[in-house]
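thread: overnight batch results

M.L. [08:02]
morning all. the overnight job finished for the chain we discussed friday. pasting input first so we're all looking at the same thing
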Amino acid sequence: MVKFLNPEEEQLVIQAIQQAEQQTTGEIRIHLQSKLRRTAWEDALKVFNQLNMRNTENRNAVLLFIAPNDHQLVIIGDQGIHNQVLSNFWIEVRDQVLDSFKRGEFADGICLGVRLIGEKLQAYFPADANQKNENELPDDISYE
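M.L. [08:03]
and the structure it wrote out:
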């Protein structure tokens, strides 16, 4: 298991996910992997499928896949959200997260990415105040 975040930072990231998901029916997951097995994209897609991220009702789950030892970050949005945003949105989020990483602000960078993704999810998949906002996927950080 990769140790990229300390326990306090992990809790900050989980709190950021929970806050973002309160405003949307979308789901956000973070996965940390110590070593790439194939390309970052191939590994991220495999994790996306392993975490059952295609199984959300609105197909609006987003994965931030981070391989810190290989200096790789991939963001995958399922069909529902990907069809709503321009492709450059994912690139802009990635670049902002990586800017934080370059300053050594790993938890802050992840939280920023979660916040930005949460804002887009809220815009296209807002939580309905009259219905229970079911948490379809866990909020914890997954590790290889």
